[in-house]
Amino acid sequence: MSVKITRDHLDRAAVVYVRQSTMSQVMGNLESQRRQYDLAQAAETAGFKSVAVIDDDLGRSGSGSTQRPGFERLVAMVCSGNVGAVYCIEASRLARNGRDWHHLIDLCALAGALVIDPDGAYDPRLVNDRLLLGLKGTMSEYELSLLRQRGIAARDSKAKRGEYRFMLPPGFCWSELGKIEMDPDEHVAGLVRLVFTKFRELGSARQVFLWLRAADIKMPVVLKNVQIYKLSWKAPAYHTVMQILHNPLYAGAYAFGRIAQKTRIVDGRARKVSGFKKPREEWNVLLRDNHPGYVSWQEYEDNQRLLLENAHMKKNCSRKSARGGRALLTGLMRCGHCGRMMRVFYGQAKGNAHRYQCRGDDAHVGAGLCIGIGGVRVDRAVALQILEAVSDRAVEAAILASDQVERSRQEIITAVERELEVVRYEASLAARRYELVDPAKRHVARELEARWNGALERVAELEGRVKELRTASAESPKIDRALLLQLAHDLPRVWNAPSTDTRTKQRLVHIVVREIVCDLDRNTNEAVLLIHWTGGRHTEVRVARVKTGRYPGDMAPTAVDALRKLAGHWPDRELAVSLNRMRCKTGDGETWTTVRVREMRERLGLPEYDPASSDGKMISLAKAAAHFGICVGSAKSLVLKDILPATQAIKGSQWLVPVDALSSETVRIAVQRVIERRPRNYIDYQYDRMIRLPGI
């Protein structure tokens, strides 16, 4: 026993700190683990009153970038003054960074605790011992940096040759020569190919996930452990589909270093956080055509571009994918002023009107609208150009559509048959195991028999499902190819068919059109659309804009005069609408808002609108239209025809309708005529998800 260990130290507890940096060391380096645990026996032999073992940090690095609850517990025990000695196998077990090491040494010096390793006992209160402990800590920190630097350099050098082995995704395996090759299991490879095939067909990772769920197809998932690589078949998950589509290994490229780590300061300490995806130009290694792939590199690039377009909340200047809705050109319209993608804004719930608008720089309040245009005429004009452009390929498109449904059925049947083949093998394996067991061992035989029966039930279940799928495929109505070819010559008829949904039309547009740049020609009051076709050609289309609702410039009153006449009769929001309709501007040339109207009204000393002061004899035109069940435009047409009496305080302001006029016989008959002019399928027409294009 060292002479530095006094009776005062022995009366207190000894703490044995056990740590290994990674879980692979915990599972594989058992001898080092035994040596550290044996320190507890050494402490008892030395005569310490009690011995505590702290092994909470097994599998945690001592570099200081990982939280170590065991080390924090050790520091707390030393600070309590009840620890006489800290046992460790070497300085690197306590800490691999100078901050933690010197902090612990200072606390041991204050509490009078020793630091003991197999080389001897050290008292931090002594100058020579403190110098030796400082050198041990510095060497440990330097050793870690040196080992890490050498390891990273060797790893990157091997990865640049495509020889560094790592955990491969489902569908690949390492050969005996250290090369990446496709998984020989046809079931696994077939499922991977099916994911890419359905993504090309559906154009959405989420739709692929939903299709796999609906078809009840199991997906291969890698169970990652320290030294175990095992495939497990599980129900499809969205992140599993996304990992397959994003991984460049499936395109035959050896990619390494796609994920980065970032260091953050948490509670005054450095913490490493992993899982950050790096841009492709920052990947450590990218070797194309390194091994056979499931898709080509060009197809992989197209898939990444489509996935980026599907992410509507990222990169507002990039093209977006079609997501349904009534608008035909969703994600394709680009502003000709600022270059941003134009958004789609829909009107009322039952209305068909929609608008393409560019909000400009939304980050700056008051920046104003950049470009806005109604979408009905624009959709009609672009649809005419598209139908004219693809008319020569209509027959080919019809033939492709006729084979798509049957191909989808066959893909499901093939996937289930491969799964059935695997289950049959498992059943035969269970049968062989049952036959080889000694009948006298009933507890083993019963378990093997239960497993065999379970495998046979699974086989029967999959055989029944294959039979049902084949029966459904045989009983499905056969497609008349001659009739389909005849219909293909009438593509406009197919376009307007009720069975053609909105998303299909939008996807057709996205195939032939790269983007559409929209600008306004204010001299001719037209929208100028520059269509960029996928083949590289460009077409300019001009669409006339609606001229209604414009207030004559020479009759526009001043904002002050208009407010003096209208204040008190309408809320501030309605006043702002009326002032903008009359083309009145604020002092700095901006449009009117509710806040600006309130500020101007308060400066002029004008009264605020009080609903209680209304006598109830007059209502707005909008409320009158809602009472009749017609739109505001129809109600206004009745006013202009002098059928429905209404007044305006000033031209351009809101209309006021007498309540007594609502029960007039003349008005009632006129409203009934408006309702009778509606089409018979009015409700379906109002709720149609996309505007039909008349005249095509």
Task: Name some characteristics of this structure.
696 residues; alpha+beta; 22 strands
Layout of helices and strands:
Blueprint: H1 7-11, E1 13-20, H2 23-28, H3 30-37, H4 39-46, E2 50-58, H5 69-79, E3 83-87, H6 91-94, H7 98-111, E4 114-117, E5 120-122, H8 127-160, E6 172-174, E7 180-182, H9 186-202, H10 205-215, E8 219-224, E9 229-234, H11 238-246, E10 254-256, E11 259-266, E12 269-277, E13 285-287, H12 297-310, E14 333-335, E15 343-346, E16 354-358, E17 371-374, H13 375-390, H14 394-436, H15 442-475, H16 481-488, H17 491-495, H18 502-512, E18 513-521, E19 526-533, E20 538-544, H19 559-566, H20 572-581, H21 594-604, E21 618-620, H22 621-628, H23 632-640, E22 656-658, H24 665-676, H25 682-686
Parallel strand pairs: 1-2, 1-3, 3-4, 14-18
Antiparallel strand pairs: 4-5, 6-7, 8-9, 10-13, 11-12, 15-16, 16-17, 18-19, 19-20, 21-22
Helix pairs in contact: 7-8, 9-10, 9-14, 10-11, 14-15, 14-16, 20-21, 22-23
**Backbone structural class:** alpha+beta
Give start-end ranges of low-pLDDT stretches.
685-691
Strand order of the largest sheet: 2-1-3-4-5
Count all strands and give the number: 22
Tell me the β content: 15-25%
Helical residues, percent: 40-55%
End-to-end C-alpha gap: 101 Å
Strand count, sense and closure of the main sheet? 5 strands, mixed
Average predicted confidence as pLDDT: 79
Shape: extended
Number of helices: 25
Radius of gyration: 38 Å
